[in-house]
Amino acid sequence: MSDRQTAILEAATRCIARKGVRGLRVEELAAEAGVSTALIYYHFGDRAGLLRRTLEFINDRADRYTAAGVTPEGEPRAILERTLLLELQDEPSVRENSTAWGELRASAIFDPDLREQLGLSTRRWVEDIAELVKGVRPDASTDAAERLTALVEGLSERWLSGSITLERARELLRGGIALELGDAG
Amino acid sequence: MSDRQTAILEAATRCIARKGVRGLRVEELAAEAGVSTALIYYHFGDRAGLLRRTLEFINDRADRYTAAGVTPEGEPRAILERTLLLELQDEPSVRENSTAWGELRASAIFDPDLREQLGLSTRRWVEDIAELVKGVRPDASTDAAERLTALVEGLSERWLSGSITLERARELLRGGIALELGDAG
Predict the structure, then answer these.
(1) H or E element, residue B3
(2) What's the pLDDT at A184?
(3) Interface of B with A (CB under 8 A)
(4) What ipTM, to 2 d.p.?
(5) What's the confidence (pLDDT) of residue B19?
(6) Residue partners of A141: CB distance under 8 A and separation at least 6
(7) Among B164, B51, B176, B115, CA closest to A123
(8) Does residue A185 surpass a pLDDT of 60?
(9) Mean predicted confidence (pLDDT) in B130-155
(10) Which of B54, B143, B70, B153 is nearest to A172 (CA)?
(11) Is the dihedral of CA B168, B95, B158, B118 positive or negative?
């Protein structure tokens, strides 16, 4: 992907996190990214294509910041917990990513064009977490990963919408991980 | 509350579930409810007031359809499970309620006016579920209720946005309840 394309997708994520999917205007995005609207249409086809690629971009970026949880010397249990907790951090990039992800999730209810990519991105995330869960409990089904990622989404939206503090969201997630792994105190 | 006010709030929920919070136009709402825009402003003050009351209305309606889970002869365990599973039903009123709730949750990230009411409604829901949890495990902290309701929100959004089936969402929720209550197979 060219630097220009990356710049457009970064700007699209920023715009969505600021004003929502329905508030995303291609003209504003062009201004934000410092490119022409023609270039946006050239690279992404239409609005639906742009939104699909933005979803993919958000997913890749989340992979990068949660990858910090996977240090070579870590225990599988600690790696899983760190990886999931990295989704709940008061960092501008995480806040922006999670806000945009929640927005795209909510918009997919109204916009069938988004559903396929969202389903794929969700599945990819669940599979990554399922692999980490299997590192701790090789006999685990994917239920644990599916539930933990859905819990991350639910807690993240509560935190971003001001219904709970970040500390509380992290505490609840840590408890959920312990329950799923069967090592709850 | 007058019938007219109820009609306006029902129509507002319908409009939000159809086009999102940002797609809600007071003129369209007036047409949908069969009243004048002046009457809407008279009863609800401004757009923020209308959204707050709509949140309250959605919460009250969810209380009513989940109350069907609480039959006098039920075991506490069955009552809790039924009540939570009633949030995941392919019924138009549940779909509409959950879609509008998710939309209001997502919008609160951008709209500080909504946060207080959303926080209150969330707390009320968590307290209701915490009471049911205590009926099964009197020593339980509110963590279980807080996690289970966040999981319902996460699973509900995945179902509504087409990332998982309703059956799968219900299965995952049942598993989550079993883990929280410590009676997982």
Answers:
(1) helix B3-19
(2) 66
(3) 18-20, 22-23, 99, 102-103, 105-110, 112, 114-115, 118-119, 122-123, 143, 146-147, 149-155, 157-158, 160-164, 168, 171-172, 175-176, 179-180
(4) 0.92
(5) 86
(6) none
(7) B164
(8) no
(9) 96
(10) B143
(11) negative
A66: left (phi over 0), alpha (psi -120 to 50) or beta: alpha
Of A1, A8, A2, A20, nearest to A101 (Cα)?
A: A20
Please give the helix or strand (H or E) that residue A64 lies within, else none: helix A47-67
**C-alpha to C-alpha distance for B84 and B109, rounded to whole angstroms:** 25
B67 with B84: CB under 8 angstroms? no
Residues of chain B in contact with residue A107, where contact means CB-CB under 8 angstroms, are 20
Q: What is the residue type of B101?
A: W
Residue B118, both tokens: 């959303």
Ramachandran class of A100: left when φ > 0, alpha when ψ lies in -120 to 50, beta otherwise = alpha
Outline where DSSP puts E strands in chain B: none
- For residue B176, the model assigns a pLDDT of 98
A43 vs B99: CA distance, rounded Å: 32
Contacts of B146 (CB under 8 A, 6+ apart): A164, A168, A172, B126, B130
User: pLDDT band for position B72 (50/70/90)?
Assistant: low
